[in-house]
Specification:
- This protein is an all-alpha fold.
- It has a single domain, classed as Glycerol uptake facilitator protein.
- The protein is 79% helix and 0% strand.
- It is globular and about 50 Å long.
- The two termini are 34 Å apart.
Length: 265
Amino acid sequence: MTKNYSGPKALTKYILYQSKHKADKRFIILLVQGILAGIYISLGAIGYFKLAATVADPGLGGFLGALVFPLGIIAILIMQAELFTSDSMVMVAVYDGRTRVSRIFRILVIILIANLLGAIFAAFMTHASGIFDEKIMQLIIQKSIHKVHMPLGQLFSSAILCNIIVSTGVCLAYSCRDEIAKIIVVWLSITVFVLSGTEHVVANMYYLFTAYFTGGDITLLEIFYNLLIAAIGNFIGGGVIVSVVNYLLAYKDIRINNKNVKRDL
């Protein structure tokens, strides 16, 4: 039987609560938690590349890598760090009339920049520590060059699809009360995202800057082009498509229960 804490109505209420919670955070807290999220995603990526490049069978290596990559998202969920892709769903607060879109964009921009700082730090430390051998670096550079030269339409569409997958997984986790259940649904959904090969802006931050620091044939302009398009696509996937669908499904009940609620963000 479906519990009363699951489904679009409960999920939308929870996201509205999270929107208020994020809006009340001080700038320094958002910044530090965003930096941590960038580092956590990078840790998952380190495990992915270690396996993907070193297992003899490329298919098996990619699959095993996809199984360890979710560590980053799980750490973000459990440690309550701030990740741009899943945080895009706070747009629900705008759809419900709780806040201005400029307020939400300010929060998301802070988080995105913080994620970038964390990913750049992790990429620099990866290069400085020499934990990747030549074979792993060849794989990272190869993937990075492919990403920065991807056609605009393909990059944009891939980024939208990426955050539909990721945000759906986070929605499932929000609907679970048990920590183990949260971990399982996030693990499965993020494994699907990695296997799909779609474009996640924060993961790309780590990939591209690791390749850049190692001397890969990519420029800063190419990197920021990829990140800009990926960020916009990810925002649409999570902040528009997933959020709007869930809000519309819950709209009637949410509006009836909150018709006397004033703007509180």
